[in-house]
Amino acid sequence: MKRIYTTYRYKRYQTRHILRENRRRLKSQKKRHYTIGGDRIIPGISSHKYVTAPATFCIKENSEEVIEFVNRLNKQLDKRTPTFIDLSNVTEISYDAIVVLLSITSQFKRLRIPFNGNFPSDNNCRKKLTNSGFFNSLYDENKDFRYDTSVRSKNIIRKHGKDASGEVAKELIRICAANIWGKSCRCQGVYRILIELMQNTHAHANNNAAGTENWWLSVNYDADNNKECFSFVDYGIGVFTSLENKRADSKFFGMIDVLRRKLTEPDNAKVLKLILDGELHRTATGQSYRGKGLPGIRTALDRNQISNLYIITNNAYANVCEDNFVTLSNAFNGTFIYWELTHNNIKCDDNTAA
């Protein structure tokens, strides 16, 4: 007579039991490791490296400190170190910094690096983070859009992508136009900017392999001022690193050095201003061309199709509307662009989507 532990039924039961326990354990580990916004310390959190966010967590207004914070997180990411993101001291937070934080924490999650974090102690900052769509976007990967349709908080986070998507741009503009003007209409400047930024990330964010870097986009409605605030970020190599590494068969090969030689103080902030003015294209082709790239975004601003443009790439910072170009001490590894769509901007009012 066979012993019970050698029978087929017993072996089948044991196999199913082991698989069930492994699934339960894995699910428990995911819940324990991939959380942010908690108010209590979880088991094993003492082994995490603490990284504290600056009190003014706004990349446009406090670029140096926020970029330093981002670089510290990226360092932990590169080292695969379990990390605790401390937001408790934050007293001012903006949507542009939130989407940057989302892009980083999502990489921790994708690489299965344990991370945790807490809420800001300030109630207004806590509420803003919660209403931004951050948590839905971090933990739900099944939808392209996370959209809060409440009256006071119409926030969209398009989590990420690697390709240019006209449908994504059209849907965003449809929602934004309805918020601002109460009806669908075409916003050609915004549409072209979105497509251009997506294409640039796909083609230029990584010189070695196109289409390997993600872009991230957050769109947030300011009900008090009736405007939509766009924050776009990619973690590629940035404009200047990309230009410095152009191949010999590119029309932009060596052009960054040519631009620097035109300046008495050839820092990247001044070079960025020349690029926005179309000087890079004029130098490379001999023609004035501002339809694409950063010059195209500047053209949309000059035509009143967008407002309040900010650009940060590598160590160059630009508040374009204020003509304020600054070289930063801390370099941002990628490109960040912020702009606004307001009721006073030009639209194509033909009752169709862009």
Structural account:
By secondary structure, the chain is of the alpha/beta class. It is built from 12 helices and 11 strands. The strands form 3 sheets. The chain has a 6-stranded antiparallel beta sheet, sandwiched between helices. A 3-stranded parallel beta sheet has the order 1-3-5, with helices on one face. Helix 7 runs antiparallel to helix 12. The radius of gyration is 23 Å and the shape is globular. The C terminus is likely disordered.
Give me the number of helical elements. 12
Number of E strands: 11
Kindly report the average pLDDT value.
79
Which regions contain 5 or more consecutive residues with pLDDT less than 50? 39-44, 350-354
Described by strand count, sense and barrel closure, the largest sheet is: 6 strands, antiparallel
Query: Which outline best applies?
Result: globular
The percentage of residues in β strands lies in: 15-25%
Main sheet strand line-up: 6-7-8-9-11-10
Which secondary-structure class do the elements indicate? alpha/beta
Using only CA atoms, what is the Rg?
23 Å
Query: What is the element string, with H for helices and E for strands?
Result: HEEHEEHEHHEEHHEEHHHHHEE
Q: Tell me roughly what share of residues is in helical segments.
A: 40-55%
Distance between the termini: 77 Å
Oligomeric state: single chain
